[in-house]
Amino acid sequence: MKMLTIERDDLSIDVLFDMASQGTVLITRDNKPVFALVAVDEEDLQTWQLGQNQGFLALMQRSWDRLHTEGGVPLAEARHRLLAENREGTCTTV
């Protein structure tokens, strides 16, 4: 990780991006962290987008709530249902 002070005026955004492609760049002001530049790949982007999607987060919360109130399907039962679905070409609810 590279640490740079925000007071430096010799760094362009392009240089910062190049530095971030090699590892995290921590920007400080008065020796305190202000923000970090981190390289992002497609998987990271998708994770970030899902984490910001209120509809997705609400769906996940409803799923967790339902799991806690109704319980879940044991893994062995889920496997059994999915294998039966594949053999029969039918769709079952797991």
Give an overview of the whole structure.
The protein is of the alpha+beta class and 94 residues long. It has a domain at 2-37. It is 55% helix and 16% strand. The protein is built from four helices and three strands; from the N terminus they run βαββααα. It has helices at residues 13-22, 42-52, 54-70, 75-88, and strands at residues 2-5, 25-29, 32-37. It has a three-stranded mixed β-sheet, with helices on one face. The longest helix has 17 residues, at 54-70. The relative contact order is 0.09.
Quick rundown:
With 94 residues, the protein is α+β, with helices and mostly antiparallel strands. It has a domain at 2-37.
Features:
94 residues; elongated; alpha+beta; three-stranded mixed β-sheet; 55% helix
- Quaternary: single chain
Q: Strand tally, please?
A: 3
Give the fraction of residues assigned to helices: 55-70%
String of helices and strands? EHEEHHH
SS-derived structural category: alpha+beta
Runs in which pLDDT lies below 50 for 5 or more consecutive residues are none
Radius of gyration: 23 Å
Task: Give the end-to-end Cα distance, rounded to a whole number of Å.
Answer: 45 Å
Using the alpha-carbon principal axes, give the shape: elongated
Strand % is: 15-25%
Reading side by side through the largest sheet, how are the strands ordered?
1-2-3
Query: How many DSSP helices?
Result: 4
What is the average per-residue confidence, as pLDDT, rounded to a whole number?
Answer: 89
Largest beta-sheet details = 3 strands, mixed
